[in-house]
Amino acid sequence: MAVPTDPGNGNGWGFYGRREEFSRLCRLLSVKHYRTLAVLGGRGVGKTELIRRACDAVGELKPAVYVEVPVPASESHEDRMWAVGRVCRDLARQAEELGLGDALSEAERFPFDLLYFDRAFKGLLGAGAVVVLDEYQNGDKIGLTGSVKPVIDSFRYIGAPATAGKTVLAGSHQQEMIRILEDQRLPLYGRVDHYMRLGPLPAPAVLRMASEQGWLSRPKRFLTAYTVFGGNPRLWRRMSEENAEEPLPEPPDGDDDAWRMGFLEREISRMRGDPRERFDFRSLVTLDSDARKAAELVARHFRGVREEKVRGLFTGKNREDAEGRCISALNTLKWHLHMVEQTPSAKPYGPSKIRMKDTQTLFQLRVASLWPEAGVGGSAAGKAMGAMANAEGYALERLAGEWLVGFRTFSEMEIGMVRKGPDGKTVETDVVAVTHDKDGVVQELALCSCKRDPGRHDLKRTAGDFRRFVEYSEAHGMPVPVRPRWLLVSPERPAASGDFRAYGLKDMARKLKLEIRPWPGLPAPGPEIEFDDGPSPGL
Ligand SMILES: Nc1ncnc2c1ncn2[C@@H]1O[C@H](COP(=O)(O)OP(=O)(O)O)[C@@H](O)[C@H]1O
Ligand SMILES: [Mg+2]
User: Fold this and answer.
1) Closest ligand (CA of 44)
2) S-S: 142 plus which of 14, 80, 212, 252, CB 3.0-4.6 Å?
3) Are residues 475 and 387 in the same domain?
């Protein structure tokens, strides 16, 4: 059987993005020899969904047993053993269902305890099954590592049958998982053969989801929700389901701004009521003070902050010491928690910037850093409303930039890029997307102006800014040998003329060949005006 590459899509709620991750996971699960895989990422990014779909897809080749390790009610021995019992029962039931009962013959001499787990885990891997231990930070707490380590070692080092299964360890508590797997002093260090880290869904996948679910038919509302949810599929799905059961009241004249207030009130009261609803809340509170300091600085700057400014936060015994602390804080945020990303410092970009990886994290750190201390209910939503103008502006830029990279395969994008002219004047461009060769010579360039209110685009001024951007670049030895594309972006398509191409969010979706469904519960809108693609092919 060939290794599957398409996870398929049912009706209703689909499976969005993650095509590459899906293929990679299927491939890793289907290789002949034993492997230990780790899937990490914050709550709700889609670890479990991805693993389950991949396991289903390779099921004919490799049967999979999936266990989500429960949280023990307390640290007490009894509660931990209760959780072990649950894991064992799950393993036993699924093994029977898959016709792998024989693999449990060694285990069956024991009650559902750690010894049972040990023999069952070993037996199932030996029988060629994929054993998924999800939420493994709990597994470590209840003592599974005592078996997982020696069993993995026996398969990795002592030679296993070529038909051996695979172990998949996944977990939402990223810091715990990283400690368990990457701390040299702990038993599982060095046992993982392949890591998969899931971040937020990229913009094209979010646009696909939003078109299918109808959210995109009201672009301003979509932008509000995107600002708060970013690329977190769990939150979007929750909104879809909620909408089916108890939609937000529809403002009398369909007013998007009034809808926004209701939406924010609901989201904020939920986040205040349940700490797990705040993105990686547990990560944030357990972050060491260096990483937290850096995260908060980055979150204060919607469009990202210069690396040297982050560096400036750190002091130490000497320069190397401060430098070391900065690098370690950024590594925690970048590699481990997926909270920030760094734009390249190579030409034609200029200095590298650190920015929040998605709008959800940014929104929660910035706008909703109001809780739980800040006022109650309405007043927090009021404050959030005030900050929304900025936050949504940034979300729009981010979306446009990610869309350009995803759709046009520009190699990089930058938000809020400042260029200084020879005369000391500066010009700032909302989004710059570029493709360049290895010498930094620009092959393709898109300059984009984003405004939340389509009426606020000033074509004359923007044209001047774009021209100066190119002029200043050339003055700094960064020639732009191609004719740049000029883009205007707003939630609803703005008016454009001349060299400008105008895009609304629906146009972006159409460029991805997506069909836009009507807002859930509302009648379909009238026919859309045909979109004039203009002379430039593609964009
Ligand atoms: N790529 C995706 N496309 C659509 N829905 C997804 C995707 N990934 C996850 N979901 C949905 O989001 C929710 C959370 O996903 P889940 O896999 O449970 O997250 P995690 O295990 O990372 O906490 C689930 O309801 C799931 O169906
Ligand atoms: Mg999960």
Assistant:
1) 1
2) 80
3) yes
Which ligand ends up closest to the CA of 41? 1
Of ligand 1's listed atoms, the one at least distance from the Cα of 42 is 22
Kindly state whether residues 178 and 82 are assigned to the same domain.
yes
Structurally, how many domains does the chain consist of?
A: 3
Residue 18: CB within 6 Å of ligand 1? yes
Q: What is the pTM of this model?
A: 0.90
177 within ligand 1 shell (Cβ under 6 A): no
Q: 287, 15, 336, 384: which is closest to 174 by C-alpha?
A: 336
Which whole number is the average pLDDT over 400-412?
A: 91
- Cα separations in angstroms, 272 against 265, 405, 409, 443: 11, 35, 39, 48
Q: Nearest ligand to the C-alpha of residue 51? A: 1
Q: Is 41 in the pocket of ligand 1 (CB under 6 A)?
A: yes
Ligand 2 center–CA 43 separation, angstroms: 7
> Which atom of ligand 1 is least distant from the CA of 232?
12
Run of H or E including 356:
strand 353-356
**Assigned token pair, 412:** 């990089």
Ligand 2 center–CA 379 separation, angstroms: 33
Give the domain CATH number at 47. 3.40.50.300
Atom of ligand 1 nearest to the CA of 201: 1
Cβ contacts of 503 within 8 Å, gap of 6 or more:
400, 487, 488, 489, 490, 493
With a CB cutoff of 8 Å and minimum separation 6, the contacts of 230 are: 200, 358, 359, 360, 361, 362, 363
Neighbours of 508 (CB within 10 A): 24
Do 489 and 345 share a structural domain?
A: no
Do 162 and 77 fall within a single domain? Answer: yes
- Which atom of ligand 1 approaches the CA of 134 most closely? 21
Token code pair at residue 21: 């991750």
325/271 Cα distance (integer angstroms)? 31
In a shared domain, residues 39 and 186: yes
Q: Is any atom of ligand 1 closer than 6 Å to the C-beta of 231? A: no
Domain hosting residue 22, numbered range: 9-198
Helix (H) or strand (E) segment spanning residue 431: strand 426-436
Sorting pLDDT into bands at 50, 70 and 90, what band is 390?
Answer: confident
Q: Are residues 92 and 191 in the same domain?
A: yes
Contact present, 140 and 10 (Cβ < 8 Å): no
What average pLDDT does the structure give for the chain?
A: 88
| CA 134–ligand 2 middle distance (angstroms) | 7
Task: Using the predicted structure, report yes or no on whether residue 438 has a pLDDT greater than 70.
Answer: yes
In this structure, the answer to whether residues 465 and 397 fall within a common structural domain is: yes
The pair of three-digit structure tokens given for residue 313, joined into one six-digit string = 């936060």
Q: Which of 234, 241, 276, 360 to mutate to test ligand 1, by most ligand atoms within 8 A of the CB atom?
A: 234
Q: What is the DSSP letter of 353?
A: E
**Which ligand sits closest to the CA of 205?**
1
237 close to ligand 1 (CB < 6 Angstrom): yes
Q: What pLDDT shows up at residue 447? A: 97
